[in-house]
Amino acid sequence: MIADLMRTSTTFVDSEPVATILDAVAAVFILLAAFLTLAAAIGLIRFPDALARLHAATKPQILGVILVVVAIALSVRSWVVLLLLIPVIVFQLLTAPISAHMVGRAGYRAGDYDPDTLAVDELAPDVAAAGKSDLPGGGFDDESGTAQRQQGGP
């Protein structure tokens, strides 16, 4: 099957106007990927806590990696290269959310977050049920897990 794909004629793709267009699209994808990677790096420096930094580290970075892989596939124009690059995208899509989730939970348990910026704190009841009541932001006022914020100074 792969040999059949390699033997197919690529005269349309190798024609001058189409090759120029594909190279231009690949260059645009590389520039977009560089911009997304720069945005992720700036977000890692500028965001205040671990949970916000995870957003900057995962979402634009994964899209940037996908754009680079697509740009490589467009510039090389080979089925073999495309088949080798697909696992790179799949691996990134599988590992980045899992690692971000684990780092986020560790940052939460270490207290490296601002409880006032959370819209919903879904992990606090689980941590409280596990016996960790020393989380930043206070304890719980009822069985439903509604957070009770400590008033006053730090």
A few lines on this structure:
By secondary structure, the chain is mainly α.
Would you give an account of this structure?
- The chain is mainly α.
- 69% of the residues lie in helices and 0% in strands.
- The chain contains 6 helices and no strands.
- The chain has helices spanning 2-7, 11-14, 16-46, 50-76, 79-110, 124-129.
- The termini are far apart.
- The model is unreliable at 144-154 (pLDDT under 50).
Characteristics of this structure?
69% helix, elongated, 6 helices, mainly alpha
List the helices and strands and how they pair.
Layout: H1 2-7, H2 11-14, H3 16-46, H4 50-76, H5 79-110, H6 124-129
Helix pairs in contact: 3-4, 4-5
Cα-to-Cα separation, first versus last residue: 66 Å
The multimeric state of the shown protein is single chain
* Contiguous helical run count: 6
Percent in strands: under 5%
- List unreliable stretches of 5+ residues: 144-154
Indicate the structural class: mainly alpha
- How much is the radius of gyration in Å? 23 Å
